[in-house]
Amino acid sequence: MTFGAILTVIAALALAVMLVRAITLARRLDRLHKALIACRHELDAQLVHRAVAAQQLGTCGVLDPATSLVLTDAADASLGLAGYLVADGLERRDFTHRHIEPDQRARIESTLTAVLTQICERSEREDLEAIPAWREATDAWYRADLARTFHDSRREAVMRVRSGVLTRLFRLAGSAPEPATFDATLTLPAHINPELTPAVPPEGLAPSDSSAARAFRDEYDVGPSGYPERQAARVLLIDRDGRVLMVRGHDIQDPDHWWWFTPGGGLNCGEDPADGARRELYEETGISLARSDLEGPVARRSAEFRFTGATLVQHEVFYVAHVADAAPSTSSACLTDLEEQVLDEFAWFTAKELSDKAEAGEKVYPEALPQLLMRLVREGWDGDVVVV
């Protein structure tokens, strides 16, 4: 075979690999677009719920007339734009026939947030919490904020795939427009304690009754989402070769459902997140770090997922730490009973290796980890806390 023929074969193989990866990416991007639209519908529904609850609060007679009027006006404005969230064309919904400005819904929801916040600041906390309509409003408010967090995380996942070289080279996004942000202010004041409503698990998906699974779920308290929630902290432990330590684990009820994730876990009551991240790292890997070894938090995320047969919500912060050795060994002598059953292996991966695993269909969490790791290895931490 001539040198030219060899080059032709190599080029053909490279092109075939690129085409296969492009097809995989195109399918993934289509799924992500659909998931983002579903997140928008859920966010819109939660904003409607908040507006209805605000209306009820404004008309129940516990607020002064001026405040009631301002609140009901803000709630009415929100309900008037139900179904119209982001005017980027992704859902092929026409905003122009109603003369709706692209950011109008976001501004209206921010106004409703401001009114609710003013009510909270002007009133005694105990008096408000005794009012059922206020508890309903804050519960709906929290759910809307949580839905927006999930929406933003999904949009970030879409944007990561759309910004990839293959996506841009083969125009895999097609005619789908770039998804816009929803820049409404929805954050609750820190001292608000929303009403907690337990959620009913889906039919046929009862939680695991093993003692280890029950002990794990006991770490979660039912939160305003209606599901058990907890705070957690994780460590991005990077070795001298730029590899990050990852854990592969599976669901105790479904061994075929497995994924890669970073060391870490739930915080104890009142525990500092950095101390919790160090503790969890030591318990899971035997690697001990000083508080000064951690930088961050460098990232945060909120995730809803199923594990041990229950739907759970976890709010996580991520710290970064560097070790001087190459892939130092780990020890798992301090694992809990459940961790002994569901943690399968520990391994060190570069950003490229994690990206390849994700493209091959393996689940890597957080999904933005390859890009975040690459930036941390090349540039270090810039002080920003990114949503992943």
Any overview of this molecule?
It contains eleven helices and nine strands. With 388 residues, it is α+β, with helices and mostly antiparallel strands. A hairpin with a 2-residue loop joins strand 3 (244-251) and strand 4. The protein is globular and about 85 Å long. The chain starts with a helix and ends with a strand. The model is unreliable at 196-208 (pLDDT under 50).
Keywords summarizing the entry:
three-stranded antiparallel beta sheet; six-stranded mixed beta sheet; globular; alpha+beta; 388 residues; 11 helices
Structure in a nutshell:
With 388 residues, the protein is α+β, with helices and mostly antiparallel strands.
On the 0 to 100 scale, the average pLDDT is 85
What's the total helix number? Answer: 11
Strand count, sense and barrel status of the largest sheet are: 6 strands, mixed
In percent, how much strand structure appears in the residues? 15-25%
Instruction: Give the SSE string.
Output: HHHHHHHEEEEEHEEHEHHE
Distance between the termini: 50 Å
What gross morphology would you assign?
globular
Give a count of the beta strands, DSSP E runs of length 2 or more: 9
State the helical fraction: 40-55%
Radius of gyration: 24 Å
- The low-confidence runs, each spanning 5 or more residues with pLDDT under 50, are 196-208
* Overall SS class: alpha+beta
Chart the SSEs and their pairings.
Blueprint: H1 3-59, H2 65-80, H3 104-122, H4 125-129, H5 132-162, H6 165-169, H7 211-217, E1 221-222, E2 228-238, E3 244-251, E4 254-261, E5 264-266, H8 273-285, E6 295-307, E7 310-322, H9 337-342, E8 343-349, H10 351-359, H11 369-379, E9 386-387
Parallel strand pairs: 2-7, 6-9
Antiparallel strand pairs: 1-2, 2-5, 3-4, 3-8, 6-7
Helix pairs in contact: 1-2, 1-5, 2-3, 10-11
